[in-house]
Amino acid sequence: MAQTGYRLWSNEVHEALSNMIIDIITYYFDTADPTLANKLRRGGHRLSDTVLIRASDLGNTKDFLADVRFQPDAGAVRIGLYENKEQFEEFVRIDKFRWAACTVDNILTPRAFDTEDALVQFAGQLAGELTQRKRVFENGYVNTQIGTHRSTAAAANRSITVTLPNGTPITADMIATLADLEAYNRLKGQTVSKAFKDEFTELQDNRRDKNELGYLRAYRDTDLILVVNAQAKSQITDVDLPTVFHKGEVFPMETIDLDQHYFGDIYAAAGTAIAGDCTMVEKQYGTKTNPRGETVPNILYPGEAIPVGQPYLAGEAYKPNPNALAKMFTISGTPFLTTVESGGAELNPGLGTTNHYLIWGYSTIKFARYMPFISFDFAPPVAP
Question: Is 359 in contact with 343 (CB distance < 8 Å)?
């Protein structure tokens, strides 16, 4: 590959030697830890690839003494079959596979290094980037799937409006001064925090309206998680609630913060990207110029912004929603399966290169319909 520019540095002692690289400093692709993908991950291996999601409604109970079969004149107790017809089964299986590769030159590249250790470090970083590609892909995939999902249960979609004590919604004209804004921020922080805590309490009680199947369910507090719009969370904890001298954690449960661009609404039809639109998939969207001035494919990972004017397919892109606050759901009801990584190296002696490969599988994110998936959205003040 031709280079458009390079530079030689002469060694102070050995003037004839140039560019003897002794160490490598490179940007190492990384992701926040803990990640949402790791929280939902269930490990798989080569010999198993499926998780069964099974649930049923509770059925009914009967009055034992009033049942006609147990009256004194009913004779012997009859043996019957009692089938619960409210059963639901779904499978989550590893159904997608991806691979990544890179090539390491074994002939010409070593001439640039001063020590064997520096060369090994360089080659190791090239091969190690394959694992980082996998992490970046998985995190983007899981984050966008969670941030754009909505339950079909009406009670699972909550719009939070800041109101006056009498229930009147606050309109934009009521926030005319700095004092009004401070009062509004205080009410907003209290309203949002209360909504989270109320929902957390409701999910631990027996209810039917929080899941899509209408099954009577109560959920363990240790299984619930709150995925929060990071910018909205900082607004609440750093701007809104400090006006009431609040200290400590304001959320009632474990939380994971996601950048607000992961929260949005999927485009159901194909279209052309406008400013802010993001991709749900890893895909090429046009081309770009690399640091050497070459035109190369513009490959984007899930969650990245699509260049304006680039076409996308139905279900392939989403519009970020700045008013999305959080998603509350169960960890057990949203499993993410992955396989053990399979990798290797392939020597090409004719070119003096080695190809490094990484292959892995993962499951399509499915949301158990008997489990809750609560979406919180904020309704900003509107004109009167």
Answer: yes
| pLDDT at residue number 116 | 82
Q: Lowest mean pLDDT: which of 10-24, 93-107, 161-175, 271-285?
A: 10-24
**For range 326-333, the mean pLDDT:** 92
Closest CA to 137 of 306, 39, 280: 280
Q: Which residues pair with 311 in a beta bridge?
A: 272
In order, the DSSP letters of 7-53 are: ---B-SS-TT-B--B-----------SS-HHHHHEEE-BTTB-EEEE
- Per DSSP bridges, beta strands 224-229 and 255-258 are parallel
User: Residue 147: its pLDDT value, please?
Assistant: 96
Question: What is the rounded radius of gyration, in angstroms, for the C-alpha atoms of the chain?
Answer: 28
Residue type, 179: A
Contact 56, 86 (CB under 8 A): yes
Question: Residues 155, 210: contact at Cβ < 8 Å?
Answer: yes
Please tell me the distance from the alpha carbon of residue 72 to that of residue 307, in angstroms, as a whole number.
Answer: 80
Closest CA to 221 of 205, 207, 237: 205
Which amino acid is located at 296 in the chain?
V
For residues 12 and 20, what is the distance between their CA atoms, to the nearest angstrom?
12
Judge whether 375 and 147 are in contact, CB under 8 Å.
no
What H or E segment, with its residue span, contains residue 190?
helix 178-203
Q: Is the dihedral of CA 201, 206, 207, 208 positive or negative?
A: positive
Helix (H) or strand (E) holding 137: helix 116-148
Q: What's the pLDDT at 79?
A: 53
Burial call 122-137: b when 16+ CB within 10 Å, e when fewer: bbeebbebbeebbbbb
Mean pLDDT, the chain, whole residue set:
81
Query: Residue 293 is which amino acid?
Result: G
**Measured distance CA(43)–CA(295) in Å, rounded:** 39
Are the CB atoms for 64 and 70 separated by under 8 Å? yes
Q: What is the pLDDT of residues 126-167, one digit of tens each?
A: 777 888 889 899 999 999 999 999 999 999 999 998 888 788
d(CA 139, CA 334): 15
Q: Which among 335, 273, 264 is positioned nearest to 300, based on CA atoms?
A: 273
The most confident of the ranges 64-78, 106-120, 346-360, 362-376 is 362-376
Is 77 or 372 the better-scoring residue by pLDDT?
A: 372
